[in-house]
Amino acid sequence: MAALLVVSTILLLLQHRTLRWAKTESNSNLQLKSILDNIDALITIKDANLQYLHVNKKACDFFNINAVDALGKRFDDIYASTQEQAKNRKSDLQVLLHGDHLSMEEQFINAHDKRINTFLSLKFPLRDKHERITAVCSISTDITAYKAIRDINHQLIFYDLLTELPNRRLLLNRLENLLLTARRDQQNSAILFIDLDSFKHINDARGHHIGDELLKKVARRLLRMMRQDDSVARIGSDEFVVVLTQLSSDTDTCYATAEEVSSRIRRALEVPYFINGQAYLLSASIGAAFLTAQSVDTEEALREANVAMHRAKDNGRNQVMFYQPTMTQEAEDRVSIGRDLSYAIGSDQLKAYVQPQFDMQGQTVGVELLLRWNHPERGWITPERFIPLAEESQLISKLGDWLLEQACALLLAYPTHCFTVSVNISPSQFRDPSLLQRIEHILDTHHTPAHRLIFEITEGMLMQDPYQTTALMNRLVQRGIRFAIDDFGTGYSNLAALKRLPLYELKIDRSLIHDVDTDPDSAAIVRAVLALGQQLRLHIVAEGVETQAQADFLNQHHCSALQGHLYAEAMPQEQWRQQVERRIH
Ligand code: C2E
Ligand code: CA
Ligand code: CA
After folding, report:
1. CB 383 less than 6 A from any atom of ligand 1
2. Theoretical Cys-Cys bridge with 561: which of 203, 235, 357, 395, CB 3.0 to 4.6 Å?
3. 543 lines ligand 1 (CB under 6 A)
4. How many CB atoms neighbour CB 313 within 10 A?
5. Which atom of ligand 1 is found nearest the CA of 507?
6. Yes or no: is domain 160-324 CATH 3.30.2130.10?
7. What architecture is domain 341-584?
8. Residue 516 phi, psi dihedral angles, 5° rounding
9. If one looks up domain 2-148 in CATH, what number appears?
10. pLDDT tens profile 127-171
């Protein structure tokens, strides 16, 4: 680029000269030619017939011509491409006829290495002393390297390196343009916010190279499904956005198209991915929102799609949800509940209630700790609502530690009893690498007999990463802790795997118990679970027992313990202690 500065100084010199300079070899002309030959740019001067009056050394080298032979020739005589010839002629004439000063990008093939180089060319007229235009001067600076760097920068700034898809910044640029179209032509676009459901588990368990490979495959699948005008972007680790452009001005039509395409995407992403001969399963939660003439701005529309995506996740994942204004309020609630929860842990608001479990003789054989949160403004918030929030915000480990301390304290209060204390362990808690260390620390500081502790985990956790989960279970079992599978009978447990796991207990899900005395299918499943448990010598607890008929059925089939409202609801620990004391005295 510095050459351009030098060149522009020389222009001033040139412009005050006439054609005579080329024909007469005065001293000053020779000096000028020497300067032009040493400048790092292609410089040519053509007369009114577009014949060369001067071609500098650099241009001669580039086009592989001789400076003297070139005189009187035209560009067409020294360069083959008819397209470039036409462009060159047109611009020369524009300068000659109208006296224009042009700045343009040109591409020429280097005569030696046959590579295409890009030039920034300046073209301007040369005038005689009567100010008549007599020649056109062209100065072309090679900007090939500069352009390559610019392209790389562009790629880095606007594209995701892994998938080569547009990134968030480019997506927002495109959305800006679409918003203008929507406002001008009433053409709406749909934003589909796609989040992969179990990607993080696979990434953690199988390594980043598998994770990266999966993301690339997802990107390719999405690209294959899109029309040319649609966009696919990757805007977070496992977050993609698809924009369906200019759908229609009619809301119903937009909705129908977006629904059809998003369902198709959801199904396509469910198809197994093969990497090194191994199949991997993913699913996606998709949130959809529209970009219309009424949209406030693009960030807002993207946020709406994101809120809808979170709703799809909360609803059980692997589904599509469309944004509705009420969702914003709920999203805000989630944030504030999550924030309040961190204050609640360890305060009076949060309590670990107990729900006892009884054997056939009516003896308390165990209790399950269940969380209860009395929020100062919102009142009671169920664990089903706040546990997922705690999982998302990483508060779950703090909550889990606190609960384990409660369990330890309860066990220590009854050192001579033999009832067990069960705690629920959520999947993200189990994935925390520091879990083992923290549990050992808590057990050591409380001098708790670990063999009276039962950790309830779910079938899903075993399915997601059987190898790692089993390894951790074994370490904890060595420490004395026992394991139960919670909500058993609703998942898809690999029954063969059950045998290999260090399990103590199965808890039959309350949905099966609910109609065990009325629905033959539920009865058959419960009987099968009981038979399986007995075969594997597992302790079996039925949860959610509400009626005597259910209890009778379970007792008849030798269920080890029953838990449910028929006997007791979850209650504050003090209340339960009073009941226990009363029974003892
Ligand atoms: P869960 O582990 O399956 O707990 C059993 C749920 O059934 C409890 O609901 C309990 O109150 C309820 N229940 C007990 N007996 C009956 C009955 O006879 N009929 C009916 N309809 N329900 C009965 P809760 O306390 O609302 O807990 C819901 C879920 O929240 C629990 O399901 C568990 O997954 C989770 N949860 C509760 N406390 C904790 C905790 O400390 N940590 C974790 N990670 N999860 C927890
Ligand atoms: Ca449980
Ligand atoms: Ca359960």
Report:
1. yes
2. 357
3. yes
4. 19
5. 3
6. no
7. Alpha-Beta Barrel (3.20)
8. -65, -30
9. 3.30.450.20
10. 999 999 999 999 999 999 999 999 899 999 999 999 999 999 999
